[in-house]
Specification:
The protein has about 150 residues and is mostly helical. It has one domain: Orthogonal Bundle (Helix Hairpins). The protein is about 95% helix and about 0% strand.
Length: about 150
Amino acid sequence: MTRAKRMQPVVQAVGHDERECAARLAIAERRARDAECRHAELDAYQTDYASGLERRIAAGITASELRDFRAFLARLADALHAQSRLVSQASAECEAAREAWSRAARRAKAIGHVVGRWQLEERREHERREQRDLDERALERARSRTRR
């Protein structure tokens, strides 16, 4: 068995690792996008709610309604802060997954390059042997013709 054929299980394992890392990266990217969308939604809701408060104040509201509005705005600010942490965490996980995939892809490419080089060497050696065999047969034919 040739070196290239013996390396096929390694090539397959490294390829499998790269595909798994790519799948984890896709999941991490989706989580990061979802976290960013949720943050944008909360931010838009807070902005709308704050502008609604301004309209209500202009129209006149009671002190208890004002307190409730402000308390809800404070909870929205807390939710936005928590969502910002989730966005940061998701971005960090995405970057870590991207690095893991990049390492796996480089490893797969390097092993593929080595195996490809070995296959080329094996193919050249096979061609040299065939050429040597053809040359020997041609020489034998030439010798047998000269003997007759």
